Structure formats: structure tokens, C-alpha cells
Amino acid sequence: MSGLGVLVGLAFVGGVLIAAIAVLWVVLKAVFWLILLPFRLLFWLVALPLLLLKVVIISIAGVALVALLVVGGVLVALSLAVAILVPLLPLAFVVLVTWALVRLMKRPATT
Questions:
Q1: Torsion-angle region of 110 (φ positive above 0: left; ψ -120 to 50: alpha; else: beta)
Q2: Longest Cα separation, the chain
Q3: How far apart are CA 42 and CA 52, in angstroms?
Q4: Please, what is the end-to-end C-alpha distance for the chain in angstroms?
Q5: DSSP state of 108
Q6: Where are the alpha helices (DSSP H) in the chain?
Q7: Dihedral (CA of 21, 22, 23, 28) sign
Q8: 3-state class (DSSP) for residue 87
Q9: Mind listing the pLDDT tens digit for each residue in 71-89?
Q10: What is the pTM of this model?
Q11: ∠105-108-111 over CA atoms, to 5°?
Q12: What φ, ψ does residue 102 adopt, rounded to 5°?
């Protein structure tokens, strides 16, 4: 037998061994999964009410957070409007007084 034939034979044997190990690994994993399946089902049966409670609490917290953000946004907008308009009050007073004086100085209409 030549060196190449021995190499091909060893590669074939190694491939078969790797395939056998892979099949054994898959079978052991499947058996392990089947053995633990009742425990997993029991865990989910116990955990399901807690998970539902978690979803309800997160939903309520989300609604409360949105309401808080909306109220906060309205307060920020209102305070921003007041902060912008308050310095304009003296100018508005001058415009109002000027308008009132011009209105009073008009001649009465002749009918």
C-alpha cells in the first residue's frame, strides 16, 4: 500500500469516527432533553402566572410613564411660554396704552 492510500484510509476512518461521535452527541442530547422535559413543563406551569404578572406590571408602569411624560411635557411647554411672554409684558402695556390714547383722540363720527 502506498502512503497516499494509507492517508486516504486514515481520513476515511477519522471521518467515520467524527460522524459516529456527532450522532452519539445528538442522541445523548435528545435523551437528555426528553428526560428533562417534565421538569421544564413543570417549571413553565409554575412560572406562567409570574410571567403574566410581570407583563401586567410592566404595562401599568408603561401607561403611568406615558401619562407622566405627557403631563411633564405640558408643564414644560406652559413654563416655556410663560418664560417667553413675561418679558414682553411691558411692551404689550405700551402698545395697549398707545392704542387706547389713539382711540380716545379720534374725532367722533358725524351721523
A1: beta
A2: 134
A3: 16
A4: 134
A5: P
A6: 3-85, 89-105
A7: positive
A8: helix
A9: 999 999 999 999 999 999 9
A10: 0.47
A11: 170
A12: -65, -40
